[in-house]
């Protein structure tokens, strides 16, 4: 996953990246190309290759947090993109660079496929590890996999998709947890009704636009149909994850989730303060179910040290504070009664 650097320089670098890409596209693919491109295109194309393979990746590095493998992948992608934008006649003296970039991308793809193969090999061990943790898959899948395989953005995305399909198709016989250690976050809101409305809107839009768009572009209509089907599946999974995963305080841990989009599991002894009625900080992670009216958190929980939260597509984020709104505040006060309050 790509995380943008929170600096003004990062924003300027990203704007400059877009300018570099746009200017190169206009040079070769605009109506003015014939009057701009000189007769001897060698140095022009060489400059464009520097833009795509050196300048653009460095601007991406200045804009986003990238590791070495991602940077190499972007350099290779820059060479391939250059071949797609620069006409073949102009690119001919540099054709070898295109195949070099393609070879790098193939190697990166092979490495990712090998990682997926490693994941499949470890499935029995992952299932045993999840069973030993005796909790919801929403909280046990990622730790069980990361105990076998080093965390990787592609693996995290696949695990997130697996959770979405699992909750959408294989949890309908399960009942929500209702015991002394659990508290729901959604029952007093219109969160599920709101998501159901989104599903209905997607279905109606699919029926109406698909048939109209099919006559214009069959390929585009199929792509849109697939995306809409995926969206419906994801929202159904999100509803089930919301229903089946209330806030729990068990085994010395506080587990909080809100659908598939965000969750956190922290040891109770890492909680520094529980403040009822306090205003959360700007960077606090909020667990407030969607409603037709805007609602505010009821309690703010501070951690002694930052804790890792899991967000959309398995992206992780360190948080030092969470803000909650639960259906039964008094019950939560009792469950957290042993923690110092300020």
TrEMBL record:
Superkingdom of origin organism: Bacteria
Ranges that cross the membrane: 44-64, 71-91, 97-121, 192-213, 218-237
Alphabetical keyword list: Membrane, Monooxygenase, Oxidoreductase, Transmembrane, Transmembrane helix
Positions in coiled-coil regions: none
Keyword Oxidoreductase: yes
Oxidoreductase found in the keyword field: yes
One MF annotation (Gene Ontology) recorded for this entry: monooxygenase activity
Name this polypeptide is given: Beta-carotene 15,15'-monooxygenase
